[in-house]
Amino acid sequence: MDVTPPVILGDEPGTFPYSVLTERHPAIIDQVRAALPYGPDRQAALDALLHDCTKGVIEPLPADAHDRDRWREWGTDTYAGRPWTDVPWLWSESYFYRRLLGAVGYFTPGTWQGVDPFRPAKLAELDSPETDEELSALDGLAALSPDERDRALLHGSLWGNRADLGFRLSAADGTAASGTPPLVADDSAALWSLLPPAPAAPLLCLIADNAGRELIPDLLLIAHLLGQGRVERAVLHVKPHPYFVSDATPADVLDALRRLRTAPGAARSYGDTLWAALTDGRLAVRAHPFSCAPLPYERMPGDLREEWARATLTILKGDLNYRRLVGDRKWPPTTGFADVTDWFPGPVAALRTLKSEVITGLDAGTETALTAAEGQRWRTSGSHALIQVRR
Ligand SMILES: O=P(O)(O)OC[C@@]1(O)O[C@H](CO)[C@@H](O)[C@@H]1O
C-alpha cells in the first residue's frame, strides 16, 4: 500500500498556499512595478500576468522562449490549461517567477534584459543599518570559545533565513518575527561530527536561499569552516536568475562580498578570506538551472547527483529548499527526516526557519506543545527554526 501523503496544492481558500497564489503574487507584481520604471509594453505584460495568475489558467511559455523545452519537461505540457490553484503549489509558485521574469523582459534583448526586478529591494536590505549592526557584531566573535564561535556562525546562517523579502510581504506587520525560541529539532551535534577540525572535509556544498542578510551569514559560515580547516573546498549553489523575490544569484554573491570587504573590523577579514578562497578555487559559486526547477530535489539531474554524492555534507538553506528536499507533501510531522531523505546521494543537512506547512522529523511532544501554544501558526510564522541532518 502506498502511504506517501498527497502533494500540497494551492486550492483551499483560507490556507497559506492559496493566499500566496491569490494575494502574495499580485502584491509581488505591484512591488515590481514600483521598483523600476518599466515602460508601457512591460506594464501591459504585467497586467496580463496578473490576470492570468489570478483569473486565468496556466499558459505554456511563448514559442520563442529560450527555456520552453526545459519547462515542457518540467511540467508545462502536463499543467497547461489548468487553474494555477489546481496544480502542485511548488510548481505554480516557481512558474509564477519564471512568468514574471518573462513579463519584465529579463530574457529578451532590450533595456531590461538581465535586470533583476528585485535588486532595488535586495540592495536596500544589504545597505541597511541592520546589516551594519550584524557586521559589527562579528568583532565580538574573537572573544568567544571555539565551540561558541561555531555555534554563533551556524545559528547566524540558520536565523538569517528569516530575512526573506517575499516572506515579509505576508507577515502581519510587514516584518518577520523577532526573538529566537529553542529549535524545534536540533541535529547540530551530527552536523559538527561530519565536519571535524581535522582531517578537513574534502567538499562542502551549501545550497543557498536568500541574498542579503541571509547570504552574508552563509558566506561567513563558509569562511569560518574554510579558515578553521574543517573544510578543504566549498561549492555555493545559487540561482541562475532572480527567483522567489530575494533568492541569491551570482550578482548577489558579488554584492555581499563587496559589502563585507568595505566594512570595518572583522567583517572585512571574512570578506578577504572569501575573496582569496574564490580566487584560488577553494570556494566556487555554481548557478545550475535545476536550482530554479519547480520540482523536488529527488528529480535532480545526474551532474548534481554526482557532485552531492562526493560532498562530505550538503547543507540546504531555507524553507523552499526544505520543501524541495522532503517533497512538498502533507507529511505527518513525526515522519522521520532520514526516511524522507534516504534517496539523497550523500549526507544532507537542512537549516530552515518554518514558513510553510510542510514539516518532518518532529518528536510527538514538540508537535503537541507547539500546537497547544499556537494552533497551526508555528508552521508558517517564520518564528521557529530547525537543524536536521541525515548522515
Ligand atoms: O525559501 P525561503 O526564502 O525560506 O522561504 C520562501 C517562502 O517565503 O516562500 C514560500 C511561499 O511563497 C514559502 O515556502 C516560504 O514562506
UniProtKB/TrEMBL annotation:
Pfam families: ARMT1-like_dom (PF01937)
GO molecular function terms listed in the Swiss-Prot or TrEMBL record: metal ion binding; phosphatase activity
Residues covered by the Damage-control phosphatase ARMT1-like metal-binding domain: 21-366
Cofactor: Mn(2+)
Keywords, sorted A to Z: Hydrolase, Manganese, Metal-binding
One GO term (biological process): DNA damage response
Domain of life assignment: Bacteria
Catalytic activities: beta-D-fructose 6-phosphate = dihydroxyacetone + D-glyceraldehyde 3-phosphate; beta-D-fructose 1-phosphate + H2O = D-fructose + phosphate
Family designation: Belongs to the damage-control phosphatase family. Sugar phosphate phosphatase III subfamily.
Protein name per UniProt: Damage-control phosphatase ARMT1-like metal-binding domain-containing protein
Source organism of the structure: Streptomyces davaonensis (strain DSM 101723 / JCM 4913 / KCC S-0913 / 768)
